[in-house]
Amino acid sequence: xxxxxxxxxxxxxxxxxxxxxxxxxxxxxxxxxxxxxxxxxxxxxxxxxxxxxxxxxxxxxxxxxxxxxxxxxxxxxxxxxxxxxxxxxxxxxxxxxxxxxxxxxxxxxxxxxxxxxxxxxxxxxxxxxxxxxxxxxxxxxxxxxxxxxxxxxxxxxxxxxxxxxxxxxxxxxxxxxxxxxxxxxxxxxxxxxxxxxxxxxxxxxxxxxxxxxxxxxxxxxxxxxxxxxxxxxxxxxxxxxxxxxxxxxxxxxxxxxxxxxxxxxxxxxxxxxxxxxxxxxxxxxxxxxxxxxxxxxxxxxxxxxxxxxxxxxxxxxxxxxxx
Length: 323
What we know:
The chain folds into 2 domains: about 1-135 and about 280-323, Isopropylmalate Dehydrogenase, CATH 3.40.718.10; about 145-265, 3-Layer(aba) Sandwich (Isopropylmalate Dehydrogenase), CATH 3.40.718.10. It has 11 helices and 12 strands. The chain has helices spanning about 15-25, 40-45, 85-100, 115-120, 125-135, 160-165, 170-185, 210-225, 235-245, 255-265, 300-320, and strands at about 5-10, 30-40, 50-55, 65-70, 110, 140-145, 150, 190-195, 230-235, 250, 270-275, 280-285. The radius of gyration is 20 Å and the shape is globular.
């Protein structure tokens, strides 16, 4: 029987549910889909796709779209308007889907985009929330695109704080973790490239010694353990080298270095993947797009990519486990 994959609607003031409903007709045969949303959000989006409302996850059938209302929701939320009520609804859907995955009721979670500010200052992002909910000791944000994968060594930090966090120990653990996660999902080729922090990987210390002092010892240690890893490589050419097939995954030292090339190379076709969770989690590589919410203009390509990626990773995970 097909996998069961949950989808969270995201911030109800954004484009989340719009792109989900647009993408679903193209992904119906990939899985049994369970939409976690509120009644008000679902009705606000004038859903016309065939679906079945369920009151319990026990009612999930053999195929199709099943809609699970986490709450009635606020009917006065407006598209494109920042709202704490919208943030609370987005968080409730995210929490419910995460709990369902941890309980083994669904095989994966695809998350719609949320607004961190609407949820509150303690909320650092969906990746961190789901990892904390699952009590993960190790997790990482990755982006899977058709031609390359990028894993972030640091996530939502200022550049100053991100660079201060980087250490040899962090990279040794991360390289081992990335290799293990790719193996978990049955990727036979796991050539990992470590992107340098400084221009030209520091040019032998001329532009900083962090690459030679912090990253190179980690790469050498992991390579001695049999992991296919190399670097640090100058970042200005590395991502193109990975894109053209020389490497399978790149570890980027900070958020923007990794995401700028991914979104340029594979805009609309890259997927946010959380490594380390006990279940599959993916998300489109865009935000709530308040400026076009409710206008019917949102492109569902990234959401469809996230749905396809989730279905593929579930299959890979089952294959790796021998199921």
